[in-house]
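Minutes, structural biology subgroup

Action item carried over from last meeting: produce the structure token record for serine-type D-Ala-D-Ala carboxypeptidase (Terrihalobacillus insolitus). EB confirmed the sequence was re-checked against the source entry. Recorded below for completeness.
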Amino acid sequence: MKKNNTTHFMSSVLMIGFVAIFLIISGRFLFIQGTGKVQGVSLNKWADEQRTTSYTLEAKRGQILDRNGMTLAYDRATYRLFAIVDESYTTNPDSPMHVKDPSSTAEALAPILDMDTNEIENRIQKGIDQGQFQVEFGKSGRELSQSTKEEIDKLNLPGIQFKKESIRGYPNGTFASRVIGLAQKENGNISGVTGIEKQMNEVLTGKQGNISYQRDLFNVKLLNPKEIVKEPENGDDIYLTIDQKIQTLLENSMSQVQEQYEPSRMTAIVMNPKTGEVLAMSNRPSYNPNNMGEVENWYNDAISTPFEPGSTMKIFTLASAIEEGVWDPNKMYKSGSYTNEQMNGVTINDWQQDWGTISFKEGIQRSSNVAAAKLAWEELGTETFLDYLKAFRFDQPTGIDLPGEVSGKILYNYPVEKVTTAFGQGSTVTPIQQMMAASAIANKGKMMRPYVVSKVIDSQSGDVLQENNSEVVGAPISPETAGRVIDVLETVITSDVGTGQSYKLTDYTVAGKTGTAEIPDSKTRNYMTGKENYIFSFLGMAPKEDPELIMYVSVKQPKLDPTESGSAPVSFIFKNVMENGLHYLNIEPDQDNQEEINAAEITDVVGLPVRDAQKKIIDLGGNPVVIGNGGTIKRISPKVGSTILPGERVLLVSDKPKMPDITGWSVRDVLRLGSLFQLNIETKGNGYGVQQSIKSGASLEDESNLAVEFSPPAFPSELKDGEKQDINQNDRTPEN
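Output recorded by EB:
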């Protein structure tokens, strides 16, 4: 009985326990069913979240365009390749949605992606072995073009899919690259790093949208997907003051000088002095934002690199003296050297040491340091001169709407520094500071702030959201003084003793000043020596009576022939851009062109070193275009004995030919190139080259296919090439 009672008791306990557990579980189910919540989490909401997928809808970054609407930067569609390797993604065995055969898939993709077959197969197989849903193919599988995507699509490879992505595209390569800047993708978003891309990043950047919907296990939309779409807001478009035609003239000219003279640095700016609009700005070395490689210099030297400017500074010493009423062009002084009792034995010398007793006007024409020193110390007085330097705003940045501007520094502590500043030594300035100051000379005394952003446009509605206007930032001199300064600066070009004779234009009068700036040597704490160790520059404006353009050019340490002066590369850039730029702007010529245009016969340059061959063609008045990286010339077109007109292209082929940039080439020039290499040429349109199928710098093989698109010129056809090769090798005037 005792044993039986114990058994009944334990059975009762177990039954009660089971009943309690059942009631608890049932109660829990009833609670969940009634409230629809588990631990405070809504099951309906949780289920929705599990069934709902969402994607970001990319907002397009705003475009950057030139003043006439030509696209300079835009979001370019690319594709990321990936392979689905999870077998469960396939619901119908007859239509596989995953990679079934890694080996054949790898063999098909390898030549298109330029990857090793084994590498592709190993990536796919590794993904399968590790149970991954999908695999990617590294750098080779990213940023694929539309044509590459279409080529892969035609293969109908199971499991191979694409994701559309945007990267920043720059259709003109190095064109104004330091102004436009660079934007790169970081953490899925494109943001500006340099230039306008950085300066206007907030305006260019849009707001991302998104889309969400409910789907099944295989990411297929349900019949009632409850789709929600939030449209993206695209970024606004930026129009620059840069003019594509003038910028192209500048880029082409600088590239030719870079190739021929191999300078360490170059900078050039073209500006409208009446508005402050920067029409062109470029530096060398430059970079191609589409293919960065190694960037030698990230700085925009035009605004970020102060240096001792040399004799272009004499423009402002002269202007100060005229405005102050102490300028007498006919007053005589003893040239050669200058010192005073407060300079502690330091002597200022003229570059040719001594021209004897000459007038101050001749001193400016000859670029006499002594003339500038005496004007500052004896005529103006150094404190008054300092007031004018500040009035020209050499003590502060211009405020140009580009990032990274650095102001120069007026070095004015000791008597010798106050004297050397008058002719551009000691104190430092940037090219853009000189341009702003020079606008007062060219614009009747009114100094204009330089700017590069013209307007901001709503990319969707086309409405103008912001428009920049010209801003007068000072009036350091009177209109009368500005006119008198221009009169004197014109004689720097026209006088028999002027240092600017090589800067004469064919159709327009020019006023300007040469500069030869010494380069500090960090090792010796002195200035570098040697014929080529200078920064050669020119600051000029035209037409002289009412300047429409002002331009600054500097070339640092060019490799000169023994008979060449530093003005050769500088004047080549200035004359090409200024002459053709003024014609393009339909500015009426203000002087008659009485020069005869004579044809020249091509001499044999085959077998000569490239540099010698170039010089011979330039001496004939031709425009040499070197095709290849070799040291000697192998072929030439037109052939030896043919006649050429001034500025006509002559193709010089050396070893390892590379495709040239044929922008601006005529049909005849392109056909000459084709005959040299037996190219199969396909042309579209007429006029001058604007696009080419073989990229500039690519290897050029015989019998290749070349498609070229031509477009009519936007300015007189005889000027379209923009490359009048008028480096006058007979102009040997030294300068300072």
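Discussion: The chain has 20 helices and 35 strands.
Next step: EB to file the record with the rest of the batch.
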